[in-house]
Amino acid sequence: MTGQGPKTLRTIQALRALAAGAVVVHHVLFMLGHNAGYSLSISSVGASGVDLFFVISGFIMVYTSHDAFGTPRASASFLRRRAIRVVPIYWFYTTVVVLLLAFAPGLFAKTQFDWHHVLSSYLFLLSENSAGQIGTVMQTGWTLCFEVYFYLIFALLLNLPRRAFLGVSGALFAAGIALGAGARPAPWVTVATDPLLFEFYFGAVTAFLFLNGLVLPRLVAAAAVVLGIATIVLTREVDLGVWTRTLCWGLPSAALLLGAISLERAGLKVPRLLVALGDSSYSLYLVHPFVIPAAGKLWSALNLGDHASPAILFAVAFSLALLAGHASYRVIEKPVTRWLLRTWKSPARPADPVITPKLVAANDQP
What we know:
Layout: H1 10-34, H2 48-64, H3 74-103, H4 115-122, E1 127-128, E2 134-135, H5 142-157, H6 165-180, H7 197-211, H8 218-234, H9 242-265, H10 272-279, H11 281-301, H12 310-343, H13 357-360
Antiparallel strand pairs: 1-2
């Protein structure tokens, strides 16, 4: 692979579409009960999309940077690509929420404008809002705090030989979790003490195995996909703590990932629609918290809940979220990303690994 760059994996985009779609389903179901007024039993299984995102992110970082370990200025080049990919659109939607908090506070049930919380959110740091909740002003922004912490660790470890990555990163994650055990650290520190970090590690291990030739036979790969999904679904009602969530959703997500990429190597064709949804999954992840509650409140204001099945609102809200995510990708995310890639020149362009354009866009984000 040296000198040629990693081969594009279209299943990665399909899995990103699956992960984003699961999170949207989770929030649509929540909206049906809390905004639209339906009495429903709400399953939390859709929240596992975040865990799949973390595993995918760990995989992609290793897969696309496999030849960059130990090369000059690799860390700066990596951080440039991550900043271009993640920061602008997150800041855009964070600013939208900040403006709404400042000038339309009646839209929010409990949260109030708080400068400390706002500034922490822009810096990808968890903090406590006026309602006593830990997170960011963006509903889904908390996951990006985990992403950015992983990026910083990854960028640091790019200076080491590739063979040292798994051992050193695993030790760093374990040390952070051990130091946080039994303590009550500040909210922004909790990212470094949360076992969910090991979901990135599961993805990284999967990438190393795959790059070293581990491709599951077709039947075994299909079984890994089925069992991965089945395990997540069957544990949806388990009272998941941070460790049980990491094990019950993180490890099955890694099995699902390895099975899917193995099936692609065996000849599986990924539908273009799933690839397109994967391309826009980051925009979908950020924009859907605006669309879904608005749809629920409008539905309730029109008293449609008395005359229509919740399945209709589910379909409407889910479709609107997908359309809004794709529009955001085409109109905001893609043009801004391309412009920044042209204007912000890489500090390590000669040493950069050759990465296919599709996979540069294939990132993380619960």
